[in-house]
Amino acid sequence: MKNLKKIYIIALLLVSNIGILSAQQIKGLVFDLESSQRLSDVQIENISNNKSTTSASDGSFTIDGKKNDYLVLRAKGYDRDTAFIYQDGVSRIYLVRDKSIIRIDEVTVTRMTDSRLNTEIEKAKNNSKAVETSQNRGGLRVSPSRLFGKEARIARNSIKILQLEQEQRLVDRTFTDELILSLISMPNDQLALFKDKYRPSYAFIKQARKEDLTAYILDSFAKFKKQ
């Protein structure tokens, strides 16, 4: 009788685990690259499992899927983009307007490789420059149209978005679950809250040594426990 109870309990645990795995979801927000406005009615398809959905009025979406899946995004007036989900949490996805001066083809800002992200930052910087070279007029000259024009404004705004993504990646790759749990112990639900509340700044992460980061996590956890 005891053995039957054990088998029954094990079976229940297996069914529960299967249910949890099958219920995995990807959550995200869709933005316009130029304006940072959230986009609604974006068609989102997970090509790994053929599930699909559309973004809500606030740009948010939830779709069945997991880390390492690929999402295809389509919206009227925007280039078709593909997002690779490489980490847990809410994914920020930026879409590029069709025929925009700043084009980011096939992939979205948050899903670019690091080298491609660097390339797009340099491209945006070049498009925002007010200085031109001219062989006919001799040497360098300042172009008011490039300085105050729409294309330059779009490029400058894109630089901010691209550089912010670059900075966020460094923080994400440094302030990891693995590092935190190697120093302190807490449940997953509290870990997410702790990371959100005490996420370090890019400026700190950029210059922090290993011992600085360790001290920061321990000190932040002490404050977290007092709440």
Q: Tell me the distance between the termini.
A: 48 Å
Main β-sheet, spatial strand arrangement: 3-2-5-6-8
Mean pLDDT: 76
Q: Could you give me the name of the CATH homologous superfamily of the largest domain?
A: Carboxypeptidase-like, regulatory domain
Give a short overview.
It comes from Sphingobacterium hotanense. This protein has 227 residues and is an alpha+beta fold.
Task: Describe the protein.
The protein has 227 residues and is α+β, with helices and mostly antiparallel strands. It has 2 domains: 26-174, Carboxypeptidase-like, regulatory domain (Immunoglobulin-like, Sandwich), CATH 2.60.40; 177-226, no CATH class. Helix content is 47%, strand content 19%. The chain is built from 8 helices and 10 strands. It has helices at 2-22, 114-128, 144-148, 150-174, 177-183, 188-197, 202-207, 210-226, and strands at 25-32, 43-46, 51-54, 60-64, 70-74, 81-84, 91-95, 106-107, 131-133, 140-142. The strands form 3 sheets. The chain has a 5-stranded mixed sheet, with no helix packed on it. The protein has a 3-stranded mixed sheet with strand order 4-1-7, with no helix packed on it. A hairpin with a 6-residue loop joins β9 (131-133) and β10. α2 runs antiparallel to α4 (150-174). The chain is globular.
